[in-house]
Design a protein that fits this description.
With 350 residues, the chain is α/β, with parallel strands linked by helices. The chain has eleven helices and eleven strands.
Length: 350
């Protein structure tokens, strides 16, 4: 029987590590086939958390996860189902060293005083890429914080007087709906497509401050078509849902970049609403811009999903479905390729 111990400073810390109804411990015991219990320390207010098991490797990995949970509790955060699953995944993949990059610092504070911190290694690398580069392509599945962190970075740059305005844009591509059937004028028809950007801004700045900046054009939210012909100097520009751009639209957007400006392009190439057969401008840009100095391509994975834990499973299920569908399509095309030749040979024999 192998055993590892970690100590805590108080029973409250122990309780927060264990989680409501010991759910975090139950998750670890199930994942690593170990037994976890705590012993109250007589000489102090803290506890000793003991991990026991038949496998030295599993005991060590469990202790590593518990040590990380202890660390984030010391930051004042509560371990969530998502954070527990995330650290379990990293530890099992041998990527424990990456967790050392996390600390208690937040890179931005919202209007209500909420600190915004990177929740995954991928998010931290994305934030660093935005700070160090002029053009950033943030690519990955839903729920990874691509747009949210980009908007936070833009507001931070505006507050620090690094830029004089923020410009947020999205292509207004219909996803099965028809814009013409929506009520109101053109702006009213377009606003629903831009709503996620408004929501992020309201949280960062507060509704009143955001409204004033929108009125003064310090912040501009517009469909991508409105960007044509402009040169955008001293601005932080975000193109959201970029998978729905054509290569021509993407080139148009990227060439709007002016002096003192920064551009962040976000999107998920697997969720394009473009007509069948139309190439995505985001996919093309990822291919041709990689390796250019000043341009960073950051790719999130399902590990970086910070929404409900089921979102990650949904993404993986769809990825599996898409892979199987592509294999079946390739097999069908291969059969069709040889079918006419087989007919010709049969006719010649007759």
């Amino acid at each position: 029987m192998f055993q590892k111990k970690i100590t805590t400073s108080s029973s409250d810390v122990t309780s927060r590590i264990f989680g409501s109804y010991d759910k975090n411990i139950s998750r670890l015991e199930s994942e690593f086939s170990v037994r976890i219990y705590n012993i109250q320390n007589e000489a102090s207010d803290g506890d000793t958390i003991v991990t026991e098991g038949e496998s030295a490797e599993n005991v060590t990995m469990t202790a590593d996860v518990l040590s990380y949970l202890k660390r984030i509790v010391s930051f004042g955060e509560e371990p969530t189902d998502q954070s527990v699953d995330y650290v379990i995944g990293l530890v099992k993949e041998g990527r424990l060293a990456e967790l050392a990059e996390f600390d208690d610092s937040s890179f931005f504070v919202t209007a209500k005083g909420k600190p915004i911190k990177s929740k995954t290694v991928g998010q931290k690398k994305y934030i660093d890429a935005i700070q160090k580069n002029t053009v950033i392509l943030g690519v990955g599945p839903a729920g990874t914080g691509k747009t949210y962190l980009a908007v936070a970075s833009a507001v931070k740059a505006l507050r620090a007087h690094e830029v004089s305005r923020i410009i947020l844009t999205r292509p207004a591509v219909e996803a099965g709906e028809r814009l013409g059937f929506l009520p109101g004028d053109l702006q009213s028809k377009i606003d629903p497509y831009l709503r996620p950007l408004y929501d992020a801004l309201y949280e960062m700045l507060g509704p009143e401050s955001c409204a004033r900046m929108l009125e003064k054009m310090t912040i501009e939210i517009a469909p991508l078509a409105y960007m044509r012909g402009r040169t955008l100097d001293d601005a932080f520009i975000i193109l959201d849902e970029a998978q729905n751009t054509t290569p021509e639209q993407m080139k148009m957007f990227l060439t709007r970049l002016g002096n003192g400006s920064k551009a962040v392009v976000t999107g998920d190439p697997t969720q394009t609403d473009l007509p069948y057969g139309q190439k995505s401008g985001l996919a093309v840009a990822m291919h041709i811009l990689k390796g250019i100095e000043g341009i960073a391509v950051h790719e999130f994975t399902d590990r970086d999903v910070v929404r409900h834990r089921l979102v990650q499973k949904i993404i993986l299920a769809y990825d599996k479905y898409d892979r199987e569908r592509k294999v079946k399509e390739a097999e069908r095309h291969e059969k069709e390729r040889y079918r006419p030749a087989n007919r010709e040979r049969r006719y010649e024999k007759d």
